[in-house]
Amino acid sequence: MNDVAARVKNLDIAVFDGDGIGPEIMAPTIALIQQVTSQVPDYALSFRSHPAGAGHYAKTGQSLPAESLTAARKADAILLSAMGLPSIRYPNGTEISPQIDLRMELNLYAGVRPVTIFPGAPCPLGDPRAATVDFVLIRESTEGLFASHGKGTINGNESATETLVITRKVSEKLFDFAFKLAQRRKAAGRGKGVVTCVDKANVFQAFAFFRSIFLERAKAFPDLTANSAYVDATALWMVERPWTFDVLVTENMFGDILSDLGAGLMGSLGLAPSADIGDDIALFQPCHGSAPDIAGQGLANPLAMILSGAMMLDWLGHENNSDGLIQSGKRLDDAVRAVLAEGRFRTRDIGGTSTTQQMADAVAAHL
Ligand code: ATP
């Protein structure tokens, strides 16, 4: 092995192609990541696909095989498209969702959902200030109401119960993550230095507890402003004045709902990326599901998946102290913005007739 090869560090990316439109948006995303990182001198990324999802469950009776979970645990990062199909369910009637199991198993507590209105995207808001919307919703992703996932009970066909869990350990880590993100955004001139805890502390003790931990942790970040807001009012303000937000942090179920509202503001679920981040491993996937209604037709918008790939490069760059990877992530993100701003290529969800591959090719041409 020559000296240059010896200095190149390999990063192992565990890939989950998933169900529905998953494989259609994953393949061009990997190609773009390979293209944009080909010039990074000190790191090489290798991609390995692992089985999981509704299709795999239908064939084998397993939704997330132990080997796939182990591979995800060992990887440097995880790239996941979308999993689950309404037609394939567990015997208790719930959908196959290994992405939720992965978040729980790997303790990926911080679900990062950026809400940015890109120039050229079909934002439904008429106000010109909408062009300045740029905030991040952080959804706790391992507990809250989802702690009850697979554990709910139906009692004698008369009542049903699911239990919401908030722990101090996870909440402290979650809030510290949110405050540090706000500091980084402020330092980069991108944020206002404001973190808002979104809860329902006026009605539920668990949320009063959640808010009290938030206010405790806020004391360690005197350079930032800590606000609290109720989730119902936040939904209203996300429509009325989303340009006033910087970093929002919330419980799992509230975050699940608000992040789809955020994607609606962005103009399409097909434009909304996300990351699920733990202490030393992270998973990147678009906010949307497997969209079975358009699967196999070349209609899927690949941009949310591609933007999730850009977030992965940024995270890997910071984790490995590689400016080359950070810059690759930025180039990929910039290329997506350029395609949207140019407006020549648009998939159906954002008002055009371009195919998934044409959209990805347009991004490649901008790199
Ligand atoms: P989940 O609960 O798994 O998030 P969901 O039930 O909310 O999934 P999605 O699969 O996200 O549903 O699809 C919701 C709608 O958005 C569908 O009409 C689908 O076609 C559309 N959609 C989702 N992702 C895309 C995409 N990448 N490109 C185009 N349309 C999309």
Automatic annotation (TrEMBL):
Keywords carried by this UniProt record: Manganese, Metal-binding, NAD, Oxidoreductase
The record's annotation in InterPro entries points to: ICDH/IPMDH (IPR050501), IsoCit/isopropylmalate_DH_CS (IPR019818), IsoPropMal-DH-like_dom (IPR024084)
Q: Which residues form the signal peptide?
A: none
Q: Which cofactor does it need?
A: Mn(2+); Mg(2+)
Keyword presence, Plastid: no
**Domain of life of the native organism:** Bacteria
Gene3D superfamilies in UniProt: Isopropylmalate Dehydrogenase
UniProt cross-references to PROSITE patterns, sorted A to Z? IDH_IMDH (PS00470)
Segments forming domain Isopropylmalate dehydrogenase-like: 12-363
Protein name according to UniProt:
Isocitrate/isopropylmalate dehydrogenase family protein
* Species name: Devosia rhodophyticola
